Amino acid sequence: MSCERFCGEIYHNAAVICPLCGERRARRTCPALGKQICAVCCGTKRLTQIQCPADCAYLATARTHPPAATVRRHQQDVARVLQFIRDLGQQQSELFLRIASFVVHYRPGELQSVIDDDVAEAAGALAATYETSARGVIYEHRPASLPAERLAAALKPVLAEAGAQGGSAWERSAAVVLRRLEEAARSMRDEAAPNGRPFLDLMARIVVQEPGAPDAAEPPRLIVPSGGG
Asked: Where do the domains of the chain lie?
């Protein structure tokens, strides 16, 4: 037996530990990470901690044939988000999902990511700014924390593009959406989530931006699973 073949067999038969959990054997090649990971991490971190490409075979299989438990969880997630946007108009609902999609994919540049409290603070400050502007008062409300302030600054161009030439009527409408986002983020703060991101994780599971679609051109949509069992 050649050295190359012998070394190859050792490699393929060796127990490769998943780099994400550090516990289970890695059996799946993750195209997003360029590494092998375990099936559990693949299933639980998909589209939340792992930004899966659209052509990932495991992602496609999960969407086509989701386990019953996954279907039930998605149904519960969708029902919850529909409750968040329960009485908003179509444009307001699309704006809510657009902001949520942006926040889910937002990366501040530092090692620390934003948490739900930062989202609530940023949304509340922007809502207050729009509310005072709609009354004819120009005053910029600022969040108390630095991460929330940076998030609010990153959201401003998104909102400005969405409300171009919308005037005070759009500002009032946007303020309602931002207040609803603030309420949604705060409503989940008491849930068991050691990372402080239950709302962001929820939105990451069910909001998807069409591949290749610019943020302003094609609004994000909810992932609504079919079937069950």
From this structure: 3-50, 71-222
Report the run of H or E that residue 198 belongs to, with start and end. helix 198-206
Residue with tokens 């052509």: 55
Cβ-contact 104, 83 below 8 angstroms: no
Tokens of 30: 């993750």
Task: Tell me how far apart the alpha carbons of residues 89 and 95 are, in angstroms, rounded to a whole number.
Answer: 10
Nearest CA to 174 out of 192, 187, 188, 161 is that of 161
Ranges in the chain, pLDDT < 70: 1-15, 67, 69, 110-111, 192-193, 208-229
* pLDDT number for residue 108: 83
Find out whether 211 and 50 touch, Cβ atoms under 8 Å: no
Phi/psi at 30 (5° precision) = -95, 115
pLDDT on residue 214: 41
The CA-CA-CA angle for residues 148, 103, 48, to 5°, reads: 120
Contact 122, 113 (CB under 8 A): no
pTM: 0.65
